[in-house]
Amino acid sequence: MIDFKLLKKSKKSNARLGVLKTPHGEVKTPAFVPVATQATVKTLRSDDLKETGTQLLIANTYHLHLKPGEKLVKSHGGIHKFANIDLPVMTDSGGFQVLSLGFGRDYGIGKIMKYDSGEIITKGSQPKLLKITEDGVEFTSYVDGKKIFMGPKESIKIQESIGADIIFAFDEPTVPTATEEYTAESVERTHRWADACLKARKTNQALYGITQGGRYKDLRIKSAKFIASRPFDGFGIGGEYGSDKRQMVKMIEWVTKELPENKPRHLLGVGYLEDMEMIVKAGVDTFDCTVPTHYARHGNAFTSKGKVDLTKTKYLSGAASKQPLDPECGCFVCREHTKGYLSHLIRAHEITGLELLSFHNVYYFNKVIEGIRKRIKKGEL
Amino acid sequence: MIDFKLLKKSKKSNARLGVLKTPHGEVKTPAFVPVATQATVKTLRSDDLKETGTQLLIANTYHLHLKPGEKLVKSHGGIHKFANIDLPVMTDSGGFQVLSLGFGRDYGIGKIMKYDSGEIITKGSQPKLLKITEDGVEFTSYVDGKKIFMGPKESIKIQESIGADIIFAFDEPTVPTATEEYTAESVERTHRWADACLKARKTNQALYGITQGGRYKDLRIKSAKFIASRPFDGFGIGGEYGSDKRQMVKMIEWVTKELPENKPRHLLGVGYLEDMEMIVKAGVDTFDCTVPTHYARHGNAFTSKGKVDLTKTKYLSGAASKQPLDPECGCFVCREHTKGYLSHLIRAHEITGLELLSFHNVYYFNKVIEGIRKRIKKGEL
For chain B, which end, N or C, has fewer CB atoms within 10 Å of the first or last residue's CB respectively? Predict the structure, then answer.
């Protein structure tokens, strides 16, 4: 179980300062949550995590179900022992991946659901390779093409086997093109699934309910009220967040306003650097995002002077190349290596470069959110 | 400069125990030398190296000349500062890559020059995309297709800019299909280049001369005698080593017999686990090999119970999967992770898995050679 203590509420915004106690340690909130999709933060080692300032991880139910399978993780004593991770861990419910990977295959849409035309998926909005029923979602495994069924019962069972500190209720995130009519049906289904998850749970892992509602204010508020009324240990805010950052913040505020103050709120899959302050001010306690590791694997570092694309020749030579990536950063990469060497590693396609940038980026994200915590404490946010 | 102290000569074989002192520390010999082609051991971080028991590295003149260029390395204060490596470093002469990559392109031959038919390259034996003249080799850059010329003067100049502790004379390694006539001409050229290198050197880096001679005993002995007669600080044994392991050992012994006892001998590009004892017994002090990192990147680990292919499902589950990769190994990977988790990472294509296996494999190779040193000390080898 978890225990959430609200330490301070900002007078200037909905920002909150808190401590989330879990069986694997405490998390100072607001906190950034690196993604460990397949039971590792990509390119990092488990003994790197604390050094990057990471307090909490989120692993992926859908991916771990397919590979290596939750039974295997359980047979190793759960995800903490399996991956030798001495930090609190969440698992998402699997709903997002089931849906986004399904749509992705049908419509060439990436995992982050970016596409141009609102007309690709119209009425009905059911992707071809998925079948959504009252009991859950039938989909095709990307590993071996087998039909797999996942619903609230299955998701909870899988997450109980994986054994994270915090698990999420199974939900149906809607895509940006979903009609109001479809979204309303979907929200109702997500609510029935939320109750089914509460009924199915057998462990004392913390269970977060997920609020949905797409871009529709009424549905967002309705969903937040419903999920808030149930005995969840915390709340997830899921689905799509509108067309721009301002709309995203508004949508998050519609939801957080309805949620009980004494329980933690997790924003699923959002956390670009430039979003952090906004989402915290909208009342979010934790949020996960693959950006630091994803960008690192493409040669990009985040620094106090902005994003640095180390694939460019300009970072290879000259006086600046002898400087650390970020002279203001205290991470081991910035203490031990120069921008020029890192750029060489990236340009020479050395895996070592991806590791060093990933380490730095995760550290940097954790430092930025640490700064935000300090500003809330001082009453500046 | 370096200083080599011969501590013990085996009575049972040509094995030797020694200490090689360099400006960046001492190397207990015989020693395994991991390869840092592009100024990093692939997937490892510079702060991993000492923990793997690594004493000496070899970087690649040809690759560093093309990327990022020796001038850049020099502007960063040389390879040690550039890559933040606090260990002795060698650079090879570039001759092997120039030739193997040239032949590789012409005849579809891998870098390790394995091919079936002895008739692909016959009389003359000059690859099409290379032009070997008295002054050196003209070849085409794999980076941008530009014509590049490298000869003894160029190689030494590049290696002086890179700034390793030990550098090698520029040579022409011959391929297994080279005729005796061609090999004889080539050996003479390598000898003229050796003298040109001695003349060209301007720094007090240690300079090793490379002996060649292909599979021809007379030429091997002739080359060893010639190179041994010159004021080199140590000696490299290069080129091809015959068709089987026994022939390889004989060839190495033809050479080491002719070399002065008080100077170190390095065997270039050989060091499979099963070769180690043989090459040490043939009188070799140091040898480099990409096998531990190369195999790791293909999911293979070396252990005291043999090679383990972690891509196989059998390592994922069952009682053995909860054991370390090698229960007899003391490396951090074996202390902190199970075979099952490592197999999961490899099977899920996680870069983290490649790093962990590379770390273990390099550690393991260093442990095996440490065991060989102990056996020489005890008079058992």
Answer: N
